[in-house]
Amino acid sequence: MYHPTTRVLAVLELLQTHGRMSGAEMAARLEIDGRTLRRYIVTLEEMGIPITTDRGRHGGYALMAGFKLPPMMFTDDEALALAIGLLAARSLGLAEAAPAVASAQAKLERIMPSNLKRRVSAVDETVRFDFSQATSPDNNAALVALSAAAQTRQRVHMHYRSAQGDDSERDFDPYGLAYRGGRWYVAGMCHLRKDLRSFRLDRVGQVRQLDQEFTRPANFDALTHLAFSVASIPRAFAIEVLLKTDLKSAREQLFDAIGILEQTEDGVLLHNQSDDLDWFARQLAHLPFAFEIHHPAALRDAVTSCALRLLQLAKK
Fold first, then answer.
1. Is 0.90 surpassed by the pTM of this model?
2. DSSP for 264-276?
């Protein structure tokens, strides 16, 4: 049997979740009669919760427009999502994330019942993410400004300092942001280079929103573009290998930064740019399926050397 207080809070949760509900529907969900429901509504009003009532056949109840409540009740799944989300935010290389997470946790704990507090504390104390390579920007200003501009599709003027320390100014259309390899990036159209570019947020300086709007390409995915751009940076050797498998299996065995995968009738073509053929040979050596090296010829020598080294180790 439910305690009356629980029923009252359940009425509030229904109003928060659904916005407006008829008395009949609310009573049916709570398994109570109309008179009891009206008593619960009066109780909420006495607590200072403003509720509008529309009488008549199609009437119902709703929270007063503009009235906001803190998230008073969470299901187990919601509490778990909040706990993991806060933990991830603290580990994602966001500037000043730790005090913000601590503040958010303190606010949530003040309104959570004890059983949910224990669940959230258990996640916080026992779950860990491997973000050891995370590079944090000096502050969150660039992340906030660029994500807002990407949402409203507003061009920005941006200061950027390259890895070599060269400063530049450019107009930029931010299509989206992504977190990869321990760093935050923004991807979009650079009007200085007149091409798609990706920029590390920890190297972005001042961002100023401009009056011009832009159109983002349909289905643009910042993380996919980032993986493609990293894999296609020109290096000492242009590599092409045919993997004797399907695209799904190739992606399961290879990390996305290793190159560009292309499904063909004969298998999956792997395109890569590399400075170290011995390293690339070791990546091929661990694959569970056959492969055929198209070029460069020097990669065949590197794979042969890798195989001979493994044979020598096996004989020991």
1. no
2. -SSSEEEEEEES-
